[in-house]
User: Fold Hemerythrin-like domain-containing protein from Sphingomonas horti.
Amino acid sequence: MEITKALHTDHMEMKKLIKAVNKSEDGAERKRLFTQFAELLVKHSRAEEKVVYDALIKTGEEEQEEAGYEGYTEHGLADSLLAQLKSGADPMSPEWSAQAKVMMEILDHHIKEEEDEVFTQVKEDFDVAERKDMGEAFEAQKDKVRA
Assistant:
């Protein structure tokens, strides 16, 4: 599968899961959904960094390099918030709920920016065969990541 399609598929699943986390009014269900979300987020992020962001950085083009480093930075912020959520004892507490809401907002922003800008850069810098290879590498890398 071509890399932007693979990324988009994960993006839609993550958005669905984090929205369900935020909508749920049952603590056990929230924890279960959050665990699924967290695993996908970590696997997706680490694979995307290796396959997409590193490739953009290696182009040597300033705009692409910046996009790669911005992606790493945004993933770092999401990782920090993810750690806070994982350490939160009560998924029904106001603090945990606020953090989950911010995670959804950060994710929405990141996905919109990535799909509007980074996907365009990837399509400009890599031909269809390269993007298919990147998609395969992305899926293989996700399988290697321990969430």
Q: What stands out?
A: The CA atoms of residues 2 and 92 lie 39 Å apart. The radius of gyration is 16 Å. Residues 3-144 form one domain. The chain has one domain: 3-144.
